[in-house]
Amino acid sequence: MSSDPARFIRRTPPGEDRERLTCGECGYIAYENPKIVVGSVVGVDGKVLLCRRAIEPRRGFWTIPAGYMELGETVEEGARREALEEACAELRLDGVLAVYSIARIGQVQILFRAGLATPGFAAGPESLEVRLFAWEEIPWDDLAFPSVHWVLQAWREAGDAPLGAPRGNPAGDLRGTTPLKAAAL
Amino acid sequence: MSSDPARFIRRTPPGEDRERLTCGECGYIAYENPKIVVGSVVGVDGKVLLCRRAIEPRRGFWTIPAGYMELGETVEEGARREALEEACAELRLDGVLAVYSIARIGQVQILFRAGLATPGFAAGPESLEVRLFAWEEIPWDDLAFPSVHWVLQAWREAGDAPLGAPRGNPAGDLRGTTPLKAAAL
Ligand SMILES: [Zn+2]
Ligand SMILES: [Zn+2]
């Protein structure tokens, strides 16, 4: 198999019922699975912790601590690892606040409601800046992704009450297919 | 890249902080991501719908309708597709009942509470048999996977009440690392 994606072609392997990305050179089948993003809305005294991204995509924009789950960890471990990496923050997870599907890019986001397990946070290597925002201070026009907008709204609506079933995608984008630039941020 | 896994070696790519499975021939990096299983506990008049597996692993054992999420669909679409494939059942999803991590095999399971959207079900090609079980009829010794046991307990505990935050792994197997044969079934 080549690492050159141009050498991959779509074809239906024997015994399967859909096309798979297959290497035209050696026949290797690259099963394309949805990827899992794990992250947390971290509340501290009613404020929310946001990180300004030091990396692409969306460098300079604000997001919650979140990233791709690694093999061998649990969703909870992944969410805590991301907060440690991006915000040097140790989290206490409260439960799953939202499960979003971003079908456009094959992503599932499992997002927790969390607090700090120990005081303190700081910008990790993937963040330019980490700070707490009161609700009315949130930089809505400078959020990195539509789902950050969605989950902050879900967090606000949940308040301090016990969590219900996780929120799903908003009615306006049930499949997560709105292009990034057209998405209401 | 070869499709022969023996040609893959573990090494740390430039700029990364962990080992990745890399093709010894061409350098292709096979990012190993956790895979998402989507499924549903389908309740019908207080009974639960189970499928007897026609395929390996665990052929002949009972499970809920569930399977790997495909790229391009949402978690809800995936859960409904699996029920259609395995039980010819059209579901009405009620919400996420449980999110389990099976770290041993790199799996995350997103499992819904559901009912039938339209009456009727039947064994699909991946099932030997599909039937409804009253709680006291559930074949606990013949369930296919530990998580089927877990989620049926969660479903029973939730009853007909509004769902709370999704259940996670049970305290006895927080990371989902108990080998299948040792797991309490
Ligand atoms: Zn190849
Ligand atoms: Zn190769």
UniProtKB/TrEMBL annotation, chains A, B:
List UniProt keywords, sorted A-Z.
Hydrolase
Identify the residues that the record assigns to the Nudix hydrolase domain, covering every copy: 33-157
* Protein's name in the database: NUDIX hydrolase
One Pfam family assigned to this protein is: Zn_ribbon_Nudix
Against InterPro entries, the record matches this protein to: NUDIX_hydrolase-like_dom_sf (IPR015797), NUDIX_hydrolase_dom (IPR000086), Nudix_N (IPR029401)
Gene3D superfamilies (UniProt xref): 2.20.70.10, Nucleoside Triphosphate Pyrophosphohydrolase
Q: Which CDD domains match?
A: NUDIX_Hydrolase
Spans annotated as Disordered? 162-185
One GO molecular-function entry = hydrolase activity
